[in-house]
Amino acid sequence: MSARSSPEPLGSSPMENGIAENANDDAEAEVEFLHTPSPSILCPVLEIEPFCPLCRSRIKLEDLHPNLALAGLISELLVYCTNKKYGCPQIVRQDALHGHVLYCSYAPTQCSNKNLGCPYKGTMRDARDHLQNCVYERFKGYIESTNKRFEKLEALISDQAREIEKLQRIIRAGKAIVYTSTTTTENGESDSSAPTLTQNAEGSHAEASASTSSCETRRTVVSTFPHDEITCHRTIASHACGVTSVAVNQDKVFAGAHDGSTKVFDIESGQLLKDLKGHTMSVWGLAVMPSGDRYFSAGSDGSIKVWDWLQEDDAACLVKSIPDHNGKVYGLAVDQGRLYSASSDKTVKVWDTETLECLATFQGHIGGINSLAPLKDASSRQLVTGSADKTIKLWDVTTGTCLKTVRRGTSEVLGVAVGDGMIFGSTYDAVIHVYDLNEGQELGTLSGHNWEVWQLEYGQGHLFSASFDHTIKRWDPRRFQCDLTLKGHKGFVHGMALADNCLVTGCADRTIKIWR
């Protein structure tokens, strides 16, 4: 570094070239100062006193400027790449070092999938080869989608926690809560004089007689299901393992489970009426005859079992076991005297519900069939199937021919439903697709679930979907909007069945819920 106290021609300053002014006269000084003083030497000196240590001229730090001649010599020096220890053999000029390092293939780096968990550390050149075989790169899409699901679930948990906290504050504040109970007389009529339990602001309880006059008009409750609000009417917790399938007929609920059992419950009281064991693995399909006295079950063991459950002896309830499928049976449906079964063996079989004879086998899917749904139309016997081959097919039941393939997508089809001239298909990416039944064209999609949707049911202008995200949603397919989300389950919702006056769901949390 050099210093100057006033503008002078280049080289006129005593320190300009780093040599003392009297260097020729003083050999000792020439030896001592025959170099450019370092800023690390000058700066501490100037902090003590503002004088040049050689000529004692008054200077300040801002008076210092580079020795351009020396700087030029330094810039031409040949130096090793800073990545030499990683294997770089390059020797470059000092002034070109920065540009070389920016693009040096030996620069240390980490895998681009570091944020997904890949621990790899190496050089730029090796990272390209690593990426081709990186396990995290192959599963990148799945990991990212799973992380997004976790983020959504965490947000959902946070929202629910805030809601719980809000309710707790309301309770602590002593808001008045009124509980009403209705008793039933021996003749089956409701008792209008049943007491009501009232909780006042102080938290104490008082029983008030709901006396009514004999001339008081009884209010008739008219069900608006499945429209308007829907709430959980009853929870049945009689299973020791997850519930995998459900069906409903009149006032009875039928349920299959992971332990291979099938149970029958009274829908109003929740009472267990029958507990039958016949399957060796999970029961994924249930279908009930319109009369309600016979039902069919099927599952992972590949067999279809026929039950007359009204028999007093449990052993006599099993009418027949049909092992004709060569894979797991995922779906069953009864319609107009026919039983339809969908299997992972890529076929649909048609059975006579009385003789139990196999009448036909539909072939055409190139992947396992996950679900099926018959059209509720007496004039047209047709069937819709959804498959792991990512397609939805419409079949003519009479001839066994495939009328059309209405979807060729990129994700596995899990559940199907049909109604009001529309076909609904849920896919593994948690999206529900809506198609025109006649034209086969996609009309739109329904999005809102966070995880896979395995069950679809359509009735009275509404579509219901049950998902692994623990929720059930009601959709208005004409507007492509979700207008209600049912929460309460604490596990994967495996089964769902829609009746005229209720919705039944079965869950991995070992419960069955009746919604009205």
Structure write-up:
The chain is of the alpha+beta class. 16% of the residues lie in helices and 39% in strands. The protein has 8 helices and 39 strands. Strands 12-39-38-37 form a 4-stranded antiparallel β-sheet, with no helix packed on it. A hairpin with a 7-residue loop joins strand 25 (369-374) and strand 26 (382-387). It is elongated and about 120 Å long. Mean pLDDT is 83; it is low at 1-35 and 175-221.
Features:
516 residues, alpha+beta, Herpes Virus-1, four-stranded antiparallel beta sheet, 8 helices, 39 strands, 16% helix, 39% strand, disordered N terminus
SSE order and pairing:
Blueprint: E1 2-3, H1 27-32, H2 39-48, E2 64-65, H3 68-75, E3 78-80, E4 91-93, H4 97-103, E5 108-110, E6 121-123, H5 124-133, H6 135-138, H7 140-172, E7 177-180, E8 183-184, E9 190-191, E10 196-199, E11 205-208, E12 232-236, E13 243-249, E14 252-257, E15 261-266, E16 272-277, E17 283-288, E18 294-299, E19 304-308, H8 314-317, E20 318-322, E21 329-335, E22 338-343, E23 347-352, E24 358-363, E25 369-374, E26 382-387, E27 391-396, E28 401-408, E29 413-419, E30 422-427, E31 431-436, E32 442-447, E33 453-459, E34 462-467, E35 472-476, E36 481-486, E37 493-498, E38 503-507, E39 512-515
Antiparallel strand pairs: 1-2, 3-4, 5-6, 7-10, 8-9, 10-11, 12-39, 13-14, 14-15, 15-16, 17-18, 18-19, 19-20, 21-22, 22-23, 23-24, 25-26, 26-27, 27-28, 29-30, 30-31, 31-32, 33-34, 34-35, 35-36, 37-38, 38-39
